[in-house]
UniProtKB/TrEMBL annotation:
Keywords: Phosphoprotein. Residues 145-212 form the HTH LytTR-type domain. This is DNA-binding response regulator. Residues 6-121 form the Response regulatory domain. The modification 4-aspartylphosphate is found at residue 56. It holds the Pfam family Response_reg.
Length: 244
């Protein structure tokens, strides 16, 4: 039996939410819930772990859709599709920083919804094609990591990696001699590198703490590259800095 893609709908207009839910159910998707607030979306993402979140940008309450997405992405790698009636550049720039898989502009047709969801589902399948629990693309040894790059397994010394940046379901390993994009999530790398000098400092970044040049209140620097430092990861970083 084919496993259904599970979708959370976050929309504060319950008529729109119910209509979307009906359409998705008719298309064969599983709707894990209808929630109206960003705070509820965060709780639902943690407890139900949907495959996709369909998220209205203009939510009422303390958290709008973009803020809710940022909070969710601190702990979960769930593809986001934004619903928006806002076309201003500032809103788009904020939303783009959370790396959504797609935008659907309101008002939208049934065809818009169906095609967008289908394309995102294909992206998810494509990014995980050939992946067994996300580990086939890397092999970590004591002082080096072998990564699949351009069809080959390439050796990188761990000491040569300055930082790692998330790019949706991919990770970019940055060294002084170049960068290597691999189809492995930052969450997987965090687990694999937990006994090495790599620390998560932001939902989108891990750093090699031996490479840090500056530790600021809200940012780090490595070779003049400015890396954001999240409040939720700061104490963990400082604790490890005191041990080296």
């Amino acid at each position: 039996m084919e496993i259904k893609t599970r979708i959370l709908i976050v929309e504060d207009d319950m008529i729109i939410a119910a209509n979307i839910s009906l359409q998705l159910s008719n298309l064969g998707y599983e709707v894990t819930g209808l929630v109206t607030r960003g705070e509820e979306a965060i709780i639902h993402a943690k407890s139900d772990k949907p495959d996709i979140i369909l998220l209205d940008i203009n939510l009422k309450g303390d958290l709008d859709g973009i803020s809710a997405a940022s909070k969710i992405q601190e702990n979960h790698n769930i593809p986001i599709i934004y619903l928006t009636a806002n076309s201003d550049e500032a809103t788009f720039t904020r939303a783009k920083a959370t790396h959504p898989y797609a935008f659907i502009s309101k008002p939208f047709s049934n065809l818009d919804l169906r095609r967008t969801i289908a394309l995102v589902v294909e992206q998810i399948k494509g990014s995980s094609e050939g992946v067994v629990d996300g580990f086939q693309n890397i092999q970590v040894l004591d002082d080096r990591i072998f990564v699949r790059h351009n069809g080959k397994m390439m050796k990188l010394l761990l000491d040569d990696i300055s930082y790692i940046e998330a790019d949706r379901n991919y990770s970019n390993l940055v060294t002084p001699n170049g960068s290597y994009l691999i189809s492995t999530t930052l969450k997987v790398l965090e687990t694999e590198l937990k006994n090495h000098k790599f620390i998560r400092v932001h939902r989108s970044y891990m750093v090699n703490i031996s490479k840090l040049d500056i530790v600021g209140e809200h940012h780090l620097e490595i070779k003049r590259k400015v890396i954001p430092l999240s409040k939720s990861f700061k104490q963990h970083l400082l604790k490890h800095l005191h041990t080296i």
